[in-house]
Amino acid sequence: MRDADPRIVLGLHRSRHERCLLTGALDLGVAALDTSSNYLGFRSHEVLARVAGDLLPKFTLSTKVGYFPGAGRAEHSLDPARLYAAVEQAAKELGREPDVVFLHNPEHTLQEAAPHNRDLLAHACAALDAAVAKGLCGAWGVASWDPSPLLDLIDATLPQPSVFMVRAGLLVGTRTFDAAEAAAAAWALGGDRLWGMSPFGGSTRAPVWDRINPGVFLRDGDRLSRAQAAFRVAYHLPQVGAIAVGTDELAHLGELMGALASDVDERAVREYRELIRARTRGQPA
Fold it and tell me: Model's pTM, two decimal places?
């Protein structure tokens, strides 16, 4: 078993939740696990506890709350009572308190809540703060697919999360980069408390990865596959301390672990960000 590397988090968004995946991840040195109350058709916590309850204490475990079963489809809510109850339920279903509970995509509801969206966010954050104080989880954070709607709502009176998870990688637009970094700065969260997710934009098999060569952003990019290079540079787009990546293939997870030894050409990354920012400014609104 390798020493654990906190820079990789095994995400279970599309996972089959098989025990062999978790034991293999531990052997590779991946000891952080991320799921959500709504994954696997709202059965993720229950299935994890059933197939690998004895393994869960070996992981740093995070989950998310904010989506709830609805009539025919999932519904999103920032109701503080529902969120607090969801954290209680998560700890019960998992058989242990999560190390981190994320407020899942708060922008989903906030975009429809004007003009009272700041109060809604404040009450939601306070509910997770209360769950930490009660010992239902070790810390709380925010996971946001599009953090732009959060920017005007964050001030010194808003409860402060411990972790902020955002999209990362070459397929993320400059608007999301800037919003993620601005929100993290407003919450006074350093890079080690900013996590990335979806580094391949959904799939390493997407046609885009045949057309671009992420290795140009690495000092030794010619020795890595395009997927490895894309993963490594994602830690700098934006600057994050860890990335949650989903896979059921241990070989793929091992390849990504191997990519961490490569050095990123930070000058090339800066030039790339300046280029896409300038291109965005030059486009008509």
Answer: 0.94
